[in-house]
Write a structure and sequence with these properties.
PhoU family transcriptional regulator, elongated, Methane Monooxygenase Hydroxylase, Chain G, domain 1, about 80% helix, mainly alpha, 6 helices, PhoU-like_sf, PhoU_dom
């Protein structure tokens, strides 16, 4: 493998990893805010979608440039195509994470049954971010078996988010029906929590793409 090509690959992987880590870090701050029941902590979530978009475009441009200059072979081509898709999935995960913070902070007021909501919202956010963090770490993993193991871990966490969202949805529907005057706020909270489930979906897509990059197979979109 040509040295410049290998250097470009390492740069691409590192930039994708850093992009993912930025989103994971933001979600960890959100998780701390929910655990402490202190929404003022959400002001520390400094996640700029514009900045993420610029970074994704820069990574994609480097990928396209590398493809044009070095004409990689089949496996390398598969890897590069996967990375092109991964940047888009990360951008979508970042957008959903940002949307969660914005909507939750706005709608989670003192009049709502906070305890009932947080009972499932906290583990939902934790599972969602575990899925994303595991997927992001796979970017730097080169062992095929470890990549496949990581993919399985992501799918387990993603499945948890489905179950947890279903439970919190049921509870919020009940609370909204019992407090019609607060139904708008309850449904906005539910909408924000839906974004966390979507982050886990994006993590599943990322891990699947990285399995495809390393061992081939079929790309499945969450």
């Amino acid at each position: 493998m040509l040295k410049p090509y290998k250097e470009n690959i390492e740069t691409i992987k590192n930039e994708i990893y850093l992009m993912g880590e930025e989103i994971v870090h933001a979600n960890k701050i959100s998780l701390s805010a929910l655990k402490e029941n202190d929404l003022s902590m959400l002001k520390d979530v400094n996640l700029s979608i514009k900045s993420l978009s610029v970074r994704a475009n820069e990574i994609d441009n480097l990928i396209v440039k590398t493809l044009a200059l070095y004409s990689p072979e089949a496996r390398d081509l598969r890897e590069m195509v996967s990375y092109l898709k991964v940047t888009n999935e990360l951008l979508r995960a970042g957008t959903n994470s940002k949307s969660f913070v914005k909507t939750f902070k706005k709608s989670f007021n003192e009049e709502l049954d906070r305890h009932t909501i947080l009972e499932y919202a906290i583990p939902l956010l934790k599972a969602s971010n575990n899925a994303l963090e595991t997927a992001v770490n796979l970017v730097k993993e080169e062992n095929d078996k470890e990549v496949e193991l990581g993919y399985k871990k992501v799918t387990v966490e993603e499945s948890k988010t489905d179950d947890l969202y279903a439970m919190v949805e049921k509870n919020i529907f009940k609370l909204a029906s019992e407090n019609i005057e607060l139904s708008k706020d309850y449904f906005e909270v539910l909408s924000s929590l839906r974004r966390l489930e979507k982050v886990a979906d994006r993590a599943a897509s990322i891990s699947n793409l990285l399995v495809f990059a390393e061992v081939g197979g079929i790309i499945e979109q969450a």
